[in-house]
Amino acid sequence: MDKTFSFGPYACRVRVVARDAIAESTENAFTIADTNTARFLPSGSASVVLPSGESAKSWERLHATLGAMLDADLTRDATVIAVGGGVVCDLAACAASLYMRGCGLVLVPSTLLAMVDAALGGKTGVNLGGYKNMVGTFYPAREVRICTPLLAGLPDREYTSGLAEVIKSGLLGDEPLVQMLEEHRDLVVGRDDALLTEIVWRCIEVKGALVEADLTEQNVRAHLNLGHTFAHALESVAGLGEWSHGEAVAWGIARAMELGRAVGLTDAAYAARVVALLRSYGYRIDPLPELARRIADAMRKDKKRRGASVRFVLQRSLGQTIVTEVDGRAVDSVLAGAGA
Known about the structure:
The protein is 42% helix and 17% strand.
């Protein structure tokens, strides 16, 4: 599997590679990993090793990484090779986009979430002031290397986190993918490599098509934020890292289904199907009324708001997605669990 996407002025090649090719180097390379993924590289070859976890996705770590690139005397024709999950990919890509106004970038996602979401499409970023991805750029990688055997050693919670983004991808427009998730749960949970490779590639196709149409999220790319307005607010309120991103996205998708029903937009049978799928994979999706007010306040910091209005990604049914403003009273009711 090998495909080159056109993301605005950028060409991004995505290919499936064997494990021994993940860190295939280029001349003048600068490699970034974290404490979990440095072992995938030849001993001592990582230029920067970040601590694992969301706390590393900070302005301070970004500044330190840029400093290390400067100390290494990198030139503009250098290539940053990032091996890791969403945190590593987001921070390394942000550094590459800023260093000398942009140097080469190759991403090697090591988690399911990064393979199907974070590594593709050019969004970079770090957290600021306790809020997700408040500083960042649009800077697609020159190449993304996919190696699904890396997922075999992923902790269960991290793997399940990525499955939430897989579910989201299916809901955005891939009925066969949703059916795979419904009918082959045991193989999915068991990490069957052949099935995983197909699942990951289907997600890449879904996201790639949306980003090709809208790199900077002026229109249809915003559909990829299904569940994310709720999710990012929950992550901020609970404390970054208390809920994994995927866990929060699953919870957010459930809230989006409920909100869509509350405003008469989402088909009831479809919403029930989505909730059943989320529950089948063990996600926590019940309302959190004790956090409702704080989550509503955090939404006002959401990057997708326009002026004072927060926009929500909602669905009529599978593949029928819209971005719309919703009356605050309906949002408050959903957060309070009034319709659950």
